[in-house]
Amino acid sequence: MITRYVSRALPIIGLLGLATVLGGCNGGASEAEASKAAPKGIFLSTGDCAENGFADFDTCSKGITAAIKDHDSNAPTYDSLRACEASEGPNRCERTLSDTYRRRLFAFLVLGGAKPDGRSLYIEIGKQGYTDNKKAEYLDSDLSLTFSKGAAETLAANVLKKAKKSSFGKKGSG
Description:
It contains six helices and nine strands. A hairpin with a 5-residue loop joins strand 3 and strand 4 (101-103). The protein is α+β, with helices and mostly antiparallel strands.
């Protein structure tokens, strides 16, 4: 009689063990899938991120710290302000501690979730959104992103500024 119960219980125990193993692996989801599901937002500072209710201050801080490291490691550098502005555009460059110039950091992409991360964001000539160092573009019309009011206003002011400069500088109109 005991052998009958044991033989019926073994498949059930095996299924429970498999479920436990898969549960420990995030349901079989890869780390990339988990990061895609994590909330994403664009902010001007840690305070801007936390005040918008996107995440707690610690998560926002970790994301922005990662974005600053990204900026320090990956932003292109130039020997002169003139060379930087020729590539990046007027008022889109900053001086570094080593007396070189690099593209100016405008905002931060913060990736929430279990492992907060972040990316540095820039405003490029001819683009309608922020771009990161890998040339991915982030538009304020993207409903999967949380945009702070300040980040949206900064983007709008700089995109409009580019459009106004280019339309006033054209010859032959009229």
